[in-house]
Design a protein that fits this description.
Radius of gyration: 17 Å
Oligomer: single chain
Order of helices and strands: HEHHEEEEEEHE
Mean pLDDT: 83
Strand content: 35-45%
Strand order of the largest sheet: 3-2-1-8-7-6-5-4
Number of helices: 4
Low-confidence stretches: 1-9, 11-25
Number of domains: 1
Distance between the termini: 30 Å
Structural class: alpha+beta
Length: 176
């Protein structure tokens, strides 16, 4: 359950969107290359949400994202999440996003059964810049909030807290 949630969170944050030549933009405008992209050199620089343990770096750096050019810009797709779009200004990008999740089971090893009364909302704001059409650096500011009667127990079982902040930084590049 943890890996699909993180993939969704990261997918929310790691995507680019801009105007294409078909929409009237300059045909010489910057655009990243379509294809498979992966994260590297990443780290949690702030981690109040305990994503270091919940979503280890090694798990994230093996995910292959697909960057696809669309009629309105670009999408980045993880194997398990919905595609996400972002704004692209020159070679800089910004990607605000929100993921709402209602867990249907308690974390492994929590010793609690049943369906938790908890709604998790993670908002993210990813910013970064492309170095060229094959690579970029990013920083994702993640904010976690939980609502429901079981939030304290659920988050405690995850090793996290309510109203937490995490910053995740790294590089993303096209697999060649």
């Amino acid at each position: 359950m943890r890996t699909p949630l993180l993939l969704s969170v990261i997918t929310l944050a790691l995507a680019c969107n801009g105007e294409t030549a078909d929409s009237g933009a300059d045909s010489d405008a910057f655009a990243p290359m379509e294809g498979a992209w992966t994260i590297s050199n990443s780290a949690y620089t702030t981690d109040e949400c305990n994503f270091t343990d919940i979503f280890p770096i090694a798990t994230q750096e093996v995910v292959v994202y697909t960057l696809t050019l669309t009629d309105i810009g670009y999408e980045l797709q993880s194997p398990t999440g919905d595609p996400v779009s972002c704004t692209l200004t020159g070679m800089d990008f910004q990607c605000p996003a929100t993921l709402v999740s209602e867990p249907t089971e308690w974390p492994e090893d929590s010793g609690i059964d049943g369906d938790p009364d908890a709604v998790l909302t993670v908002t993210s704001d990813m910013t970064g810049a492309f170095e060229d059409m094959h690579s970029a650096s990013f920083s994702i500011d993640l904010q976690g909030v939980c609502e429901g009667a079981d939030c304290d127990a659920y988050l405690d079982a995850m090793g996290s807290t309510n109203n937490c902040s995490t910053v995740y930084e790294g590089d993303i590049s096209m697999d060649m």
